[in-house]
Amino acid sequence: MISRYSLPEMAELWSDQERYATWTKVEVLASEAQALLGRIPESALVDIRRAQVPSPARVAELDRERDHEILSFLAALCEGIPDDSARWVHLGMTSYDLVDTALGFSLARACDLVLQAAVRLRGVLADRAVEHWNTVCIGRTHGMHAEPTTFGHKLAGFAFAIDRSVRRLEAARAEVAVGTISGSVGTYSLIDPFVEEYVCAELGLGVEPVPSQVVARDRHAELLHAVATLGACIEQIATEVRLLSRSEVREVEESRTAGYQGSSAMPHKRNPTGSERLSGLSRLLRGYAGTMLENVALWHERDLSHSSVERVVVPDAMIVAHYQATAAADLVAGLDVFPDRMRAAIDQTNGLVYSSAVLADLLAGGTERERAYRAVQAAANRAIASGEDFGTLLRTEGIDAGQLRPERFLVHHDAIFKRLEALREMEH
Fold first, then answer.
1. Model confidence over 300-346: pLDDT tens digits?
2. CB of 214 within 8 A of CB of 183?
3. Rounded to 10 degrees, what is the CA torsion of 274, 276, 282, 284?
4. Which residues, including other chains, have CB under 8 Å from residue 321's CB and lie 6 or more apart?
5. Distances from the Cα of 306 to the Cαs of 18, 214, 294, 298, 343, in angstroms?
6. Cβ-count burial of 2 within 10 angstroms (0-12 exposed, 13-18 middle, 19+ buried)?
7. 377 CB contacts (<8 Å, ≥6 apart)?
């Protein structure tokens, strides 16, 4: 992923140097287990523990000759180990015993970073929902004015969507945080299962229950779908911000720096570029998720078709998800909200947004449904065409609507607020 959409702590996790450091860690742990079994001498273990993590440059140099990154890594690793000890490195293992166990460890750490960002986003949304719980605004369905709601209600809905994404990510983390050290076709033919148990326990990983040569790829597909769903939920927030930021609406606006410039040609522009960026990144995540589904079906015990895909898609998806969730939390935390413009959007309808309440009152008073609906609709149509006050036109239809206020629609709003408070308690 390009540096523009990468945060340092996540980008470092997927660097070549960190990958080789993790591979070295797996090989050392495997040697420790073999020593506990009496399969390799203690003197060899001492030498193996002293080995330095190979440099990416040295591995790349060897790989140009061998065309096999894992063997090149092992050769580079063993250059710093005496020959009598180096022969015990990677004992009984196949390449993906190393790669997939290390991948499970890296994915668990990456998930933790994404989860931290998503939990922060959930908390920011919940806090701002409480802040604006009574900030009345117009609800829109089909893009059209509907009934009054509150801006806090909108934000609370987003907070619960992110909460569901957090729980999906937690479940997906458990599925990908596994390893396998079981040999060429997963039968432990040349290695004791204790080695796998020891290494995975030390790394905080579960064990693939029925290994082939690799960890099952449906696990990784599940993770990327959880990540893509988080991205879609963030896109929903970003889309709302974009819609409410339009010049003719301007109910919210992204926070601006003092030196902000929105357009090279039009100095007046205040574009919602942050939320537009979040929307675009969600498209990447959806594409990555679909690609990972293609990796689930491998030939027999394993082929290599998944490897090239994962080298690109897995790091990029986790880097994008981490950046997107972090940027979304920053956007919501700094979002400028204009309650006066929200109230003005309700008032500019000349009372039309109260039509459902008028209809409900007529029905409660005994008016037949079709007659009540047509009467209210007739007054509404006249108000739309003429710009006259809806309440005044209702009276010409023989309907006294009384006082029309947004609060009429919020009499049971406290029931939802209690759910929001329960969610906020999770943050503390």
1. 998 989 989 999 999 999 999 999 999 999 999 999 999 999 999 99
2. no
3. -100
4. 114, 117, 227, 230, 231, 285
5. 21, 11, 8, 8, 54
6. exposed
7. 355
Residue 225 annotated among the catalytic residues of the structure: no
Calpha distance 14→18 (Å, rounded): 7
Are the beta carbons of 390 and 355 closer than 8 angstroms? yes
| CA–CA dist 214, 57 (Å, integer) | 27
Beta strands in 24-95 (DSSP E): none
Calpha distance 114→121 (Å, rounded): 11
* pLDDT tens column, 235-285: 999 999 999 999 999 999 999 888 888 778 888 888 999 999 999 999 999
3-state SS class at 93: coil
Instruction: Say which of 15, 189, 255, 263 is annotated catalytic.
Output: 263
pLDDT band at 428 (very low <50, low <70, confident <90, very high): low
145 is catalytic: no
Q: Which of 238, 236, 258, 422 is nearest to 332 (CA)?
A: 238
b or e along 273-299 (b: 16 or more beta carbons within 10 Å of the residue's beta carbon)?
A: ebbbbbbebbebbbebbebbeebeebe
337: which strand partners? 252
Global confidence as pTM: 0.94
Amino acid at 139: G
SS (H, E, C) 189-256: CCCCHHHHHHHHHHHCCEECCCCCCCCCCHHHHHHHHHHHHHHHHHHHHHHHHHHHHCCCCCCEECCC
The pair of three-digit structure tokens given for residue 315, joined into one six-digit string: 């790091």
Mean pLDDT of 162-171: 98
Other CB atoms within 10 A of residue 152 CB = 25
| Exposure string over 130-146, b if 16+ CB within 10 A, otherwise e | bebbebbbbbbeeeebe
Q: pLDDT averaged over the chain?
A: 94
> In the block, which residue shows the tokens 């629609």?
409
